[in-house]
Amino acid sequence: MTPTAPITQDMLTITRKLPDGPTNLVGLTRDGLRDVLIAAGTPEKQAKMRVGQIWQWIYQKGVRDFDAMTNLSKSYRAELAEKFVIEVPEVVSRQVSADGTRKYLVRIAGGHEVETVYIPEESRGTLCISSQVGCTLTCSFCHTGTQKLVRNLTAGEIIGQVMIARDDLGEWPEPGRAPKDETRLLSNIVLMGMGEPLYNFEGVRDAMKIAMDGEGISLSRRRITLSTSGVVPEIARTAEEIGCLLAVSFHGTTDEIRDKLVPINKKWNIAALLNALREYPRLSNSERITFEYVMLKGVNDSDEDARRLVKLIKGIPAKINLIPFNEWPGAPYERSDWDRIESFANIIYKAGYASPIRTPRGEDIMAACGQLKSETERARKSRKVIAAEAGLT
Ligand code: SAH
Ligand code: SF4
Questions:
Q1: CA of 284 relative to ligand 1 center, distance in Å
Q2: How far is CA 68 from CA 28, 41, 53, 87, in A?
Q3: At 230, which CATH number?
Q4: Mean pLDDT in each 10-residue stretch from start to end of the chain (393 residues)?
Q5: Comparing C-alpha atoms, which of 377, 289, 366, 375 is closest to residue 331?
Q6: Does residue 369 have an active-site annotation?
Q7: What phi, psi does 284 have (nearest 5°)?
Q8: How many domains does the chain have?
Q9: Which of 60, 100, 106, 231 could cross-link with 56 by S-S, CB 3.0 to 4.6 Å?
């Protein structure tokens, strides 16, 4: 794609039901689950109760086999097993970094692959999940951006990543013994893996509703953060329909530089983005917006940039997350020097904003921010092409 090409979204309709196969129950909303149960012969009067029971087995207890659902009659279990499956994506490989970060290569329907990363920390464990195979956007510093969009993930494939991580962590609590969020191994979700989550709004929304549902995985909406490159028309909907926290890939303080780094800026520029953020429905001091800012040597890391950033976001409850650039093969940028990052952070801190510098995690297994890229439809571009597309040559 050339830098001037329009940014488009490939919308593929993905049916959950294979032509002749059974329907996968994973990823259906409560209403969706009710509908398929009724269509399969469950009496309407019982449907609500059955939804609750099946939901708990799948999302609270991690059960994949209808036969284990002991509060349902044997004949009903057999009927369910005939018509439905409980399927999560397949884990093709799992790599564990020296720092404990785990990267899963996950295979979804059609043989496509995405990556999911688990990052353990002292007081929490964060799962970074993917929402698309590849990405339509072509941010010049992002490895995923060199891979063409193949398709949106279904809600089942998105929540399925949480389920396989829980399988791997052995974290399906006994009934009645659900741990508190802060003591869970998987306590937080960030939609910061492959893809632009707001270009797969419905899939992401339905999956996150499942993650937050109190009868299942039951994570607080404040423990879920969705990161967008700036899909302005969908920003308010994120607060209204999902209710999670928002992070924005800001990265540039003038339209000229942001156009090059985050090309969606040509469609919705800095002013339009900031407007949408100022009006973000849930905005408050306790629910600040995270501004992500990748530190690229000599590109966006000057003191002047830091001062401009502070001016731009004035009045928005915000925290600024500085991300040292993570290298990938062929990347046309370098990470800013440490003293530069600190000087940048200092200016922001003095202006009254929290400015944590994100420690790169899992770099040895290419699991750090922006390093994810699967072999699916690999369209590896050369360093020269990437640099040209970024308008750097
Ligand atoms: N598509 C969404 C979410 C995925 S990217 C978005 O762009 O916001 C998650 C974060 O990692 C984004 O802030 C992204 O800009 C950043 N990122 C991408 N490539 C990176 C790299 N090579 N080094 C550091 N951060 C990177
Ligand atoms: Fe896509 Fe986000 Fe990477 Fe940009 S930074 S190419 S939006 S995944």
A1: 24
A2: 20, 21, 12, 15
A3: 3.20.20.70
A4: 34 44 95 97 97 97 96 97 97 93 94 94 94 92 83 97 96 66 87 96 98 94 96 95 96 98 97 94 82 97 98 95 91 96 96 88 78 58 53 53
A5: 366
A6: yes
A7: -160, 175
A8: 2
A9: 60
